[in-house]
Each structure stands twice: as structure tokens, then as C-alpha cells.
Amino acid sequence: MPEVIFTGPAGRIEGRYHPAKEKGAPIAIVLHPHPQFGGTMNNQIVYGLYYTFVNRGFSVLRFNFRGVGRSQGSFDHGQGELSDAAAALDWAQSVNPEARTCWIAGVSFGAWIGMQLLMRRPEIEGFLSIAAMANRYDFTFLAPCPSSGLFVHGSQDRVAPLREVISVIEKVKTQKGIQIEHAVIDGANHFFEGKLEELMGTVDGYLDKRLGSVQENAA
């Protein structure tokens, strides 16, 4: 899991990158929670998502948004962080020129950034949005959503209450053939404390359906 430094719009960006063994393997980018509330690339959920994709043979990158850890710059209320995410995907593609497809995974604030990136980059074919704060951030830009993916929420999330989030997500329009799925982890809060295993089990089940099981991929 080598440490990487690449150039973003606000200066140096610090990341962790795991290259795939297979040439042409897909890319996954994992985006962390809100920088002003302790979110970093070492968040437990981010870490779990990172290794979920590593185990499926992806080239995977997680990184710190501007102003977090050793990444330069300062918090920019989403606009600059979206530019950071685009720079991260550009960097991953530059070291994986044969990769044709990409997945994006985001947690909380990172889910909002990830979905905006999805709208701008047609090569992103799937997404995972964990604890998306659809009650606090506008998701109406998903009109229509161009890729299939999964939203996962905790039933006891007080930061982004389930009822509000589901009502927003259900209004998202989709293109023909695009499916948006919801999963709810019973008893989980916004950070899935004590429920991380269940969360990752749900994510793995979804990825098995979309990509085939890890065993099949390893064979």
C-alpha cells in the first residue's frame, strides 16, 4: 500500500494507492467524510471500502482532501474538494492508461463529492454512497443519474435522518437501464459504529451481484 503524492489544484495531495496485478484492471477512488469534522482517508469505512476493491482486483486510490493530513490547501466547501477528486481520478488514470472503467465510493460528505464527479466523468460505471447527507446537500444534480449504484444508510443516523434521505434519493431520476438501490443497516448511526461488519457485508453483496464474487475474480 504505497504512499503517493500527486499534484492537485491547491497543491500537493497525499494518498494511498494499491495497483492491480492485472493490466487494464478497473480503477476505484474512495472519498472520505467531511474534513472539518475529522474526516480523513484513514476513516474506518474508507479503509474497508478501499480493501473491498483491492480484493476484487481493482487499482484503488484513497486520498486526503485539501487541508487534511499532508494535502495542501484549505477547506473549500465542496467546490475545491470536487476538483481534488477529479485530479485524483486523472492521476489514477495516468498510471493505469489501459483502464477503461472506474468506480467511485464516498462516505458522508465524500458521497456528495463522489456523485458530482460521477455526473462529470462518463467512465464511472458504478458507485457506492455511504451515509450520504442528502438532507444537507443538494442531490438534484442527479438528473438523470448516469450510472447504477448503491446508497447505504443507518436506521439510527441522526446526522442524515433516514426518512429525509430516502425521500430525496427516491426523487433521483434514472436513465433507462440504470438502477439505484438502497440498503438500510438496522441500528446503525451515521458512522456505523459497531455495525461496520454489517455495512461491509452489504457492500460486498452488492458488488458480488454487479461484478461477480471475489473467488470468481481471483480464479
Count of strand segments: 8
Instruction: Kindly report how far apart the N and C termini lie.
Output: 23 Å
Q: Major β-sheet, in short?
A: 8 strands, mixed
Low-confidence stretches: none
Order of helices and strands: EEEHEHEHEEHEHH
Write the layout of secondary structure elements.
Layout: E1 3-8, E2 11-18, E3 27-31, H1 44-54, E4 59-63, H2 79-95, E5 102-107, H3 109-120, E6 124-130, E7 148-154, H4 162-169, E8 180-185, H5 196-211, H6 214-218
Structure characterization notes:
It is globular and about 40 Å long. The protein has an 8-stranded mixed beta sheet, with helices on both faces. By secondary structure, the chain is α/β, with parallel strands linked by helices. Helices cover 32% and strands 23% of the residues. Strand 3, helix 1 (44-54) and strand 4 (59-63) form a beta-alpha-beta unit.
Write a brief structural summary.
The protein has 219 residues and is an alpha/beta fold. The chain is built from 6 helices and 8 strands. The protein is globular.
Name its key features.
219 residues; alpha/beta; eight-stranded mixed beta sheet; 8 strands; globular
